[in-house]
Amino acid sequence: MDNNQSKTNLQEAIVRTIAFFDLFSYPVTALQIWKYINVRCELKEALEILENMPENISSKQGLYFLSGREEIIKERMARYNQTDKKFKRALLIAKVFKFIPWIKMIAIGNIIGEHNLKDSGDIDLVIITAKKRIWLTRFFCVLITKILRLRPTPQKTRNKICLSFFISEEAMNLESLMMADDIYFIHWLAGLVPIFNVNNAYEKFISANAWLEKYLPNWRAGEVSYKRDVGGGEGEFYYDVVDMLVGGLEEALKIYQLKIMPRKLSMIMNLDTRVMANDQLIKLHINDRRIYYKKELDKKLNALSKIKKDHSFWAMVE
Fold first, then answer.
1. Is 102 helix (H, G, I), strand (E, B) or coil?
2. What is the mean pLDDT of residues 167-183?
3. What is the b/e burial string over 248-270, where b = at least 16 CB atoms within 10 angstroms of the residue's CB?
4. What is the value of pTM for the model shown?
């Protein structure tokens, strides 16, 4: 730990992290706390602080949580099995999507923590595509999920496939999407779990977003698990043949998809970072809850009497 970083500041950073994960009813281990605090330190230094935490932090079964919130331990355990079922569904659709030759990476998103997806929710996929093939890729992904009846509807979202985030491989740096004090986006990005990875696209994506280390200095991307990997692509020959046959439809399918885009999306498209649609990025999150989570975190920190008044999550970022 840097000489100018006091134990008091490290303690506050730890409490902030525990409070953030409490928004998602997720108690955290000591290792997870160390990974996600915004202060560079050794694991043993974080462990020393955890041995003498204030009264507003409790621990049980190796998990840390806000005092009075012991019930979320059971919720974490339940969500572990729920998340496993969602991974199996995602792997099945990824095995179909891998035949779309322009897909470079498929990752599951919105995992705040590890194995922390609600049973009632849909499955958010983040897809990286080849250059100048983002609209073509999205068209076939949406078409497949519609045929398989896996698209979410207002009436039914559970275990459906949400296709709201496509990134072209020449624009993998997402720092421009950051909002002020954007704690959720940081954890969203760190929480992506790749299940299809062509030519180390995930590793290239993490490298393109190396700025993440400024906010999570102890975090490192994990290796892609072979148990949750649908294998590689179909090879360059397959790519070339399919691209030769239908690659020229990119512009036409872009125009078509923009034309049929729901009015509630098109009205705010490219006005801010909620809904963006261009040849490098398609992000369709009309209900962007990042501001909501920031406000809720502020409320929690205000309620913790031993946190200083200046409790901006990024206050300790160098």
1. coil
2. 93
3. eebeebbeebeeeeeeebeeebe
4. 0.90
